[in-house]
Structure formats: C-alpha cells, structure tokens
Specification:
The structure is a single chain. With 126 residues, this protein is α+β, with helices and mostly antiparallel strands. It has one domain (3-124): 60s Ribosomal Protein L30, Chain: A (2-Layer Sandwich). It has three helices and six strands; from the N terminus they run βαββαβαββ. The protein has a six-stranded mixed β-sheet with strand order 1-2-3-6-4-5, covered by helices on one side. Strand 2 and strand 3 (27-33) form a beta hairpin. Helix 2 (47-65) packs parallel to helix 3.
Length: 126
C-alpha cells in the first residue's frame, strides 16, 4: 500500500523523525500539532488562539493530503490544565461543530511550557 509523507514546519520533525501527516490508503493521520508559528515566533498566549493556530497548520496538511476538515473522523486535544477546556473547546467547535468527529480531550504536560494545547486528527480522503 502506498505511503505518502507530508512535511510541515515544526523543528521537531527532523529531530524526532516524524511527518506532519501520513497518507495510507484512504486515511490521513495528522501528527500531534503544537502551536508553533511558521516564522519561529512565540506561540499566541491563550489556549483559544493556540488551538486556532494548530487548526490552521492541520488544515494546510489536510489540504496537501487531498482532504479537509469535513473529512476528519477523530480528534484528540491535549490541554495543560483542565480549566482550559472551554477555550480549546470553543476553537474546536468553530471548526468541527457541524462535522462532529469522535473526540478525546486529555489533560497532560506538553513538550514546551509555552504550549497550552496540542491536537492530532485522523481524516479520510474524499
């Protein structure tokens, strides 16, 4: 089965050895996406703005894979504090409110203390 790798701009891709997204068959698996601006600047302050940035990065990867948000079947949102779920949930809902993929939200520590959120998604090709 063909395996197509889609690179992103995260500096961790080459260090850790991962792709922003991998397409296998009719599935698109997007890696955990942190709020890392392409220009290397610091992430936005709030969880809402951070998740919106993550979703922008994911949207670009999905488009390059030939898919889109409407084809997302699963999301996993990671927040560093349970109190952030509403901010993150609002950003998630703006994109996925009508699509309603399966979702899990987890409270955990993240690699960079400036990150309040991270998200990964699975989608299908249309």
């Amino acid at each position: 089965m063909e395996r197509r790798l889609i690179a992103g701009h995260s500096p961790y891709e080459s260090i850790v050895g991962f792709s922003r997204a991998v397409v296998v068959g009719n599935m698109v698996h997007v890696a955990g996406t942190a709020p890392i601006p392409a220009d290397g600047s610091p992430p936005p302050e709030g969880a809402y703005d951070q998740l919106r940035l993550c979703l922008d990065i994911i949207g670009e990867a999905l488009a390059r894979a030939g898919s889109g948000f409407e084809h997302v079947v699963r999301t996993r949102v990671y927040v560093t504090d349970a109190a952030l779920w509403e901010e993150a949930g609002r950003a998630h809902g703006e994109v996925f409110g009508a699509i309603r993929p399966a979702n899990t939200t987890v409270v955990t520590a993240l690699l960079d203390p400036a990150w309040k959120v991270e998200i990964d998604v699975d989608a299908v090709l249309p």
